[in-house]
Amino acid sequence: MPDPSSTAAAHVPSDVSSGPRATIEDVATAARVSVATVSRAMRGLPNVAAATRQRVVDVAQSLNYRPDPAASRLAAGKTKTITVGVPSLNGWYFSTVVAGAEAVCNEAGYEFQVIGVGSHDARDRLLDDRYHLERRTDGLILVDVEPSDEQASALARRGVSLTTIGARIVGCPSVQIDDEHVGRLAADHLIGFGHRDLGVISGLDDDPMNFAVPMARRSGFFGGAAAHGITLGDEHVRNGNFGVDGGRVATAELLDAPRPPTAIFAMSDEMAFGALMELEHRALRPGVDVSIIGVDDHEFARVVKLTTIRQTIAEHGAVAARLLIEAMTVRATDAGVDYVPPAHQPTVELVQRTTTGPAPTS
Amino acid sequence: MPDPSSTAAAHVPSDVSSGPRATIEDVATAARVSVATVSRAMRGLPNVAAATRQRVVDVAQSLNYRPDPAASRLAAGKTKTITVGVPSLNGWYFSTVVAGAEAVCNEAGYEFQVIGVGSHDARDRLLDDRYHLERRTDGLILVDVEPSDEQASALARRGVSLTTIGARIVGCPSVQIDDEHVGRLAADHLIGFGHRDLGVISGLDDDPMNFAVPMARRSGFFGGAAAHGITLGDEHVRNGNFGVDGGRVATAELLDAPRPPTAIFAMSDEMAFGALMELEHRALRPGVDVSIIGVDDHEFARVVKLTTIRQTIAEHGAVAARLLIEAMTVRATDAGVDYVPPAHQPTVELVQRTTTGPAPTS
DNA sequence: ATGAAAGCGCTAACAT
DNA sequence: ATGTTAGCGCTTTCAT
């Protein structure tokens, strides 16, 4: 024990990386202030002399000091973490949304967690009071997952900020396109080409994690058709489960009907890809024998020249993250009262490629 | 101050959800043991009477108690978090890997973080000593990202377990296919069809986050060709950047060469899709005029009938997560000595569809 | 503007 | 087998 001067001798500008990490106390003694002042200075709180703050920051820097996240959390009760819950990470749509959110969150200094909530069980486990989500995260982004009213309000009560994509929860920021409009756009486009025999490949109806989207698109499509005097019913729609395979069998069913459609609206590009496969299988030419329109503008839509209704998915994720962070900030900083959570509605855009075309003059 | 009995009156079996969370102390007093015993009991540590453990667990359950992660972290220094660093979340390959890892990690009770490390800068920021990664995560999975030797050993020193996918770091578990073999497989397949004029679309060479993979595949392909008396050189390879667009322009360049290839090996399906687009653009029939083989078995490979070398990506992520957890466990539990980190080599499989076929008899 | 001190809820020696 | 007691590194009143 050569050095009895306990912890006080902390003036060492030892630059050798990776010893035991400097603590707030090391910084405090080195800067000749109290830990409280260091804490204030580092977080930009008021009541710190400019000179003092500067000194503290410099010392912290030279000591390679960073507040320990665990300690901060324990003391302050905030996690500086954002979690996104998605039905699945597989699938272009979800992973793209996640990518958009990740960039924003990490950029803003939040840790970014993701958790798969593919089933109702998984969803409930996450949202359930027993998971203590509020101790793990400050904010939650739910993608195409609709929490129950109780779950949503419980989250708020527990201090977890919520924002949704593809759904709308009162009191929470949301990002959601106008799905009715999407349906109408598709109908107009197809009918504009002279098609009168229409089919639609819908998303899942049976195990509805989020049936709102398919419903709205269907309703928009039906409405658009009706405006042109075309009446559509259940017999014109098949469920494709938002997957390639589903899209393919749905197409087969549609085409096997007594009066097969000459144009098909697939509610997602992935299902449209399945439709294309089935067409090829039957030696039907897309855009001439049968027209197909999808939704998303999936990265491979252009590979197969799919006409589709584009939405800017990555943007959705990024915007949601920003809205969430804003909501958390506002709510904390000043009078979070009279803060109206924005319901962002991204625009969509029809991009025509070659899988749609004039109705065959049978 | 109506109740002087301080904290002792904690026998309330109040079942109303979402009050202030029960702490370990609540459990302790309710179970009439000390907090230490609760801690032991809850974590399955030895030296707890079976009866006691049962009682504690029951009480904890009835109190809806969960240890506070932040408190555990602070006290124990472990985060129960696993982080995966990927060059990007966009792109089927990475998001699929992440999906595989996510499932395993959350299943095993780890929080799951993801962080994009698309550039050298981002990578270094994450791995740099100044980021204090060890305070945020117990284990790191790096996907197609090669840390420097110093970074890797620094991680170990700092207590962050590392496992890699698509790379090999000494002392760390890894998941990596035999990329040379992939190249050879492709060469054999193409040459087996009688092709002698070969082209290859490689991954990025200039900004090499991970040039090992392209190099190995190329070397395997060249070797395979050489075995059949075909000599290949730089002039037969173009960089496609692992993207659709890159694949397309690479293909164009290849086809515009004085002696254009009749068969092309694309190192990823995405680049192969680009190749297919270029073929279509030139009215060349895949599998008859020009053969294309990819790597991955991307979910849309079958949509366009792409012949490819399948690897089970999601599995890679899952296996990596399992190996990582195992490594962390072993290292902690018993004699972590003489633990040899496994280098898992998943198998690949050629799946032939219609984009490859006999060489045209020009 | 700054400091002292009391926790935050847990784990880990060290008793017993 | 169980209890006692220090911390872990911060934030946050409350003084000054």
TrEMBL record, chains A, B:
Keywords: DNA-binding, Transcription, Transcription regulation
Sequence segments annotated as region (Disordered): 1-20
All copies of domain HTH lacI-type, residue ranges: 22-76
One function term, GO molecular function aspect: transcription cis-regulatory region binding
Source superkingdom: Bacteria
PANTHER family associated with the record: HTH-TYPE TRANSCRIPTIONAL REGULATOR GALS, LACI-RELATED TRANSCRIPTIONAL REPRESSOR
Protein name: Putative LacI family transcriptional regulator
Organism: Ilumatobacter coccineus (strain NBRC 103263 / KCTC 29153 / YM16-304)
Classification lineage: Bacteria, Bacillati, Actinomycetota, Acidimicrobiia, Acidimicrobiales
